[in-house]
């Protein structure tokens, strides 16, 4: 006998499914009580992509990303960060529903390590895996148009 312990539904729709287990017996098939479930309660989104982090003037770490395309109904995402030069605990930001967020950081010249993850907006299901780490870049300031020559790079 086949010892299959899982099933795959394809194509998977975002409806509510009614599932039950049916086993043959000598007295006819035996059927379990039905279970109702929504795939959104069990789905783990893919990780976000195209993560970018820029430390801006004024000590703002700006992080942007492209969220995964599913689930269509919406995602919440959060990022975490820590300084590259000082090994410390990750600082996790609150979830946002837009593909970017920012946080004040103590040193705008510091490089920060950033990761992002997402989950369904209603809080069911699972968080995606954290993205690969991305190092922040610092926003370049323009050199002045006037002033001593050493201010300008030629």
TrEMBL record:
One of its GO terms (molecular function) is cytokine receptor activity. It is found in: Membrane. InterPro entries: FN3_dom (IPR003961), FN3_sf (IPR036116), Ig-like_fold (IPR013783), LEP-R_IGD (IPR041182). It is a single-pass type I membrane protein. PROSITE patterns: FN3. It holds the Pfam family ObR_Ig. The keyword Nucleus does not apply. Transmembrane segments: none annotated. Keywords: Glycoprotein, Membrane, Receptor, Signal, Transmembrane, Transmembrane helix. One of its GO terms (cellular component) is external side of plasma membrane. Residues 44-141 form the Fibronectin type-III domain. This is Leptin receptor. The lineage of its organism: Eukaryota, Metazoa, Chordata, Craniata, Vertebrata.
């Amino acid at each position: 006998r086949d010892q299959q312990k899982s099933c795959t539904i394809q194509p998977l729709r975002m409806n509510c499914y009614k599932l039950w287990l049916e086993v043959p017996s000598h007295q006819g098939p035996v059927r379990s009580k039905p279970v109702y479930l929504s795939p959104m309660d069990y789905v783990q989104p893919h990780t976000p992509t195209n993560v970018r982090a820029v430390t801006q003037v004024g000590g703002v770490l700006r992080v942007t990303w492209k969220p995964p395309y599913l689930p269509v109904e919406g995602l919440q995402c959060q990022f975490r960060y820590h300084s590259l030069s000082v090994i410390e605990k990750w600082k996790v930001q609150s979830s946002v529903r837009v593909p970017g967020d920012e946080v004040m950081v103590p040193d705008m010249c510091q490089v920060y390590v950033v990761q992002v993850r997402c989950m369904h907006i209603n809080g069911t299901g699972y968080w995606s895996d954290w993205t690969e780490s991305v190092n922040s870049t610092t926003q370049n300031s323009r050199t002045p148009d006037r002033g001593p020559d050493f201010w300008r790079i030629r």
